[in-house]
Amino acid sequence: MKRQAVSRKHFYFGAAGFLFVSAYVSAAVPTAVMTIKLARDAAFAYNPDLRSTRERLVELRAVKSQAISHLFPSISASGNASHRKDAANGAAAFGGEPYNVYRLGVDLAQPLFDGGASFAALSQVRKEQGIRNYDLQIAERELTLTVVQAFYTVILNERTLFNLRKNYEIEKKVLVTAQDRYRIGRGQLLDVLQIKTQMALLDPKIAEAQKNLETSVATFANLTGVQGGGSVSLTGGLDLPLDQFQKRAPQAVTLPEIERIHLQQLQFPDIRKISLAKHYPQLSATGSWARSAFAKQDLLNGYSSAWSVGLQLSVPLFSGLSSFWEREQLASQEAQLSISEYRTVDASALNQIRAEKELTLRRELVMATKKATEYSIESLREAEKNYRLQTADYLKLLQAQQNHLDAQASFDHARYNFIVAVARYFAATGLPLDEVIAWLEKGKQSS
Question: Hey, what's the torsion of the CAs at 24, 28, 30, 32, to 10 degrees?
Fold first, then answer.
């Protein structure tokens, strides 16, 4: 696993993790460095759900053009050739000779009034475009949150594995010292056995950390589409400039979920008008021009042409009271939209409160665990010195090592949770997550 060289201080206080993703890629492919911003961009380009949401917007452009087309006249050309046999006259029985009839013509129909359905359909499509834009914003926001979690889960698991392996190497050095002391009679066999026991206990922890790392790498690769396509290194760190992060006031009115439901409410009158338009009179202007003859050659004769213009009115009189029940159905759907608005606003407000409280708690935990880590470093150094001078036994050194490992793990998890809490706070309050990505990039540069 590739890792940047860091000092001891950086190791303890959050150096930049540098992970080589090798479980899914070929070593022969050149390695590309991926930051959190590049990871987010790669996920935006690859994620199938997000691409499907974008295609829905492309689809809507065609639907909009289709709605506009209904405002224009429809023109059709028709041709007819038939072989007929009619009665010789109206009073006589069926008889007479069969004959041919030919007709070529052009027909035109221009809707004049359709209950407002055509203009309502165009208005509905325009609002639907806004709704799907909000769907895209929601999908991008949720994907950004997922990428941030996946990216820093890899960094966290990498640091956990690194710390365990580092602790294992320390135990190996201590074991050598204990064995040397035991051989010259200045140490006890109990110390040697305890160190070996501690090393044996570290083996399953390292194996579990390795498994967690590989799983998080798989999750990240699935999000960004890097599996099987090349090698990539993640560069980032948990040591972020807390003083550069400023908590902003919530902006619930700008949440895409709320704007989306408001736009759906504005769209509903168009849906109602389209649905009920069939129960209103329909008026169209019609026109036709045709040539008809009994012989093919007569179709070119000027006397065979005919034309007509007119108005066509269709008035529905009775449809089994379907319009009444349809209005009841539409009224219920409108009421459901109002209920959905209340539910969305309430859920958004609750999410904001939770996100704000979570952010405050996570920030306090970062400060507390940082102080605990600093104390554990001092304690470990003192225990190592006392053990070398034989003024303290191995049990005190072991306790100091375990306390430092626990403090470092708590500090790493606190910083990870704080990063996730910041992203969730911005998402819950309607603030742009691009600011979070920029803040995380600063953390990468300062590590």
Answer: 10
